[in-house]
Write a structure and sequence with these properties.
Blueprint (H helix, E strand, L loop, with lengths): L30 H6 L6 E7 L2 H13 L4 E4 L4 H8 L6 E6 L3 H12 L6 H41 L1
Antiparallel strand pairs: 1-3, 2-3
Amino acid sequence: MPWCPKCKTEYREEIQICSDCGSDLVEKLDVEEEYEDKEYIQYQYLFNCSGDQEADILESFLVGEGIGVLRKYPGSSDISKVIGGMTKLDVELYVDKERFLEAKDIVENIFNKDFKQDDEVEEEEQSYDEVSSSNFTIGKILIIVLLMGLIFAKLNSLF
């Protein structure tokens, strides 16, 4: 089956020109070629927000300056984000490593305080790993209790 190399659309055998962009169709798409030209961004940890609202505010300032932001919901934060649509737990913000200093200045100006030194952050991350595993366990327990409550309520409505 022929494919359009620009639109990535598959066509019937009798078609020879893409109806969307006018390109000549090819028999096979070269997927590897598409990814060879891509430049991958290395993200660096920037800030730990206390929830989605704070993350939204910081992200809007950073994006306004053209700095892309990646969010990570550590521990049980990701579970509450999926179930509830937002989280009141931690949200970690990461930015392009090349623009880290610029992003750091923006956050420092917002909060009027200096960042911790790298060695302090590493110590905090090590202790965070221990806390995040207990948060994940607490999250599991809360979900189990919630499910048990729903099952109990459903059984009560049946009888």
